[in-house]
Write a structure and sequence with these properties.
Radius of gyration: 15 Å
Keywords: Membrane, Transmembrane, Transmembrane helix
InterPro entries: DUF1145
Number of helices: 4
Largest sheet: none
Transmembrane segments: 6-24, 31-54, 66-82
Number of domains: 1
Organism: Photobacterium frigidiphilum
Distance between the termini: 14 Å
Number of strands: 0
Protein name: DUF1145 domain-containing protein
Order of helices and strands: HHHH
Length: 88
């Protein structure tokens, strides 16, 4: 399970890298617009996940600042990793 979470985090990190590259050096044609929309959607969804998780469990689980912000970057895969660390 730990290896799969690491692999998923690497994949999401690659997606974020492509989205950030598109901001500074837009891809040609309509691809740039599609990637802008995807970046906004991904940021909003992961941000919502982070706010919901911290609101629901922030006082019950001691998380580091990195763990809180990793939810914004990696989404559900960070949540699975946090659950695995804090449930043991």
């Amino acid at each position: 399970m730990k290896a799969l979470i690491a692999l998923a985090k690497a994949a999401i990190g690659f997606v974020w890298l492509i989205l950030i590259i598109n901001i500074f050096s837009p891809f040609p044609g309509v691809a740039a617009m599609a990637l802008y929309i995807m970046a906004g959607f991904l940021f909003m969804m992961h941000g919502l996940q982070m706010l919901i998780f911290i609101g629901a469990f922030g006082d019950k689980i001691n998380m580091s600042k990195w763990e809180m912000w990793s939810i914004l970057i990696f989404g559900v895969f960070a949540l699975l990793d946090i659950r695995r660390k804090h449930m043991m």
